[in-house]
Amino acid sequence: MRLAAVATTDPLDRRTFSGYSAGLFGALADRGVPLVPLSSRHIGPIDLARGAVRLSALPRLRSAGRRVPIVNPAWYWSRSSAERCSRLVSRRLAARGGATHVLQVGTHVVVDAPGVRRFCVTDCTVPQAVAAGEFSVSHANGRVLREAVEWQAKVFASSEAVFTLSEWAAASVVEDYRVPPQRVQVVGAGANITGERRRAVDPARPIALFVGTDWALKGGPVLGSVWPRIRAAVPGARLVVVGCSPDLRGDGVEVVGRLEPNIAAERGRLLDLYSRASCLVMTSDFDAYPNVLLEAALMGVPAVGFDEQSRAEVIEDGVTGILVADRSTDALAAAVVRFLSSPADVLAMGEAARQRAVARHTWPVVAARVAEAMGLSP
């Protein structure tokens, strides 16, 4: 038994797929599964010559984030690029030898490995990303977009089973790609946070916590627009912003900025902020499966979020947090005010969120689910 762990970049790097790859493969390794780590989308000199990187987009990266893709969508999502990368990773696997299973995070290559059991895991499909106008595939031209959909269909067809993070993504795999439901399994994700802190919520200083690396992309402006209303209703409340540094002013606002989880002192600061928060507010325009909700839940923090994509699968409305319909700012403000003014709700829903996260959303739990489905014995 030997698992080829495949991702676009280093599958054990916590920056790959927002930490999902490292979390899953690390937990599988902890179960005793031997790994063969393989990256498949390394951009080399020949790729640069073929226009893999859009140099014209570099000046706009700081302000636009992923909405201005640096990697050229015509290169990344084309059939020719996918075929070349598939040959590359297949040769690397053959050179390493001995793999019995392949699990790729994403749907970027088809691994040619006779006799090897192949699986893939994805957080959303190409049609879902395009419908939301998200990720670089949404910037591809018509021909490349068709090739991207056809390639994803090929990856699904070549996989013994398709794992998804959510029922929302699974529904698209079945409905848009006609993959038989028995070949699709929701495996979820684990929280990308380690360590423990005792809850230390101060009823006299309630805190609404925002955690995200991109203020605009993560819906920060919506929260910023309603914060004066929230502060007026709960005068002692504070809004703490972690992960980014927006130009945000007003009473009760604290901008912490980026905290690096791999640095012990900064990870400790993040855990302390979670421990003191009355609620997490998650207002992203699009998030296929927001890990920040899992982090908050594991720390016993109830969440407020818009009822979109997969959020209802993480936030159980009225039990572990509050879901807000139709992106209503009035309802958003009311939900946050409820937590900031009701310590009883904070404690009850926070504990329910923690228990649910422990049972469903830790990497050992997810890895056990995946290992069983793949027939990987510890």
Q: Strand portion, in percent?
A: 5-15%
Low-confidence stretches: 60-64
Mean of pLDDT: 91
Question: In percent, how helical is the residue content?
Answer: 40-55%
Order of helices and strands: EHEHHHHEEHHEHEEHEEHEHEEHHH
Number of strands: 12
Number of helices: 14
How far apart lie the N and C ends?
A: 9 Å
In the sheet with the most strands, the strands line up as 2-1-3-4-5-6
Structural class: alpha/beta
Largest sheet: 6 strands, parallel
What would you report as the Rg, rounded to the nearest angstrom? 21 Å
Principal-axis shape: globular
Task: Please describe what this structure looks like.
There is one protein chain. Residues 60-64 have low confidence and may be disordered. The chain has helices at 20-30, 45-49, 61-64, 73-76, 79-96, 126-132, 142-158, 167-177, 220-233, 264-276, 291-298, 329-341, 343-360, 363-374, and strands at 3-7, 35-39, 101-105, 117-122, 161-164, 184-186, 207-211, 238-242, 253-257, 279-282, 303-306, 321-324. The protein has 14 helices and 12 strands. The protein has 378 residues and is an alpha/beta fold. Strand 10 (279-282), helix 11 (291-298) and strand 11 form a beta-alpha-beta unit. Helix 1 (20-30) packs across helix 14, helix 9 packs across helix 12 (329-341) and helix 11 (291-298) crosses helix 13 (343-360).
Quick structural summary:
The protein is built from 14 helices and 12 strands.
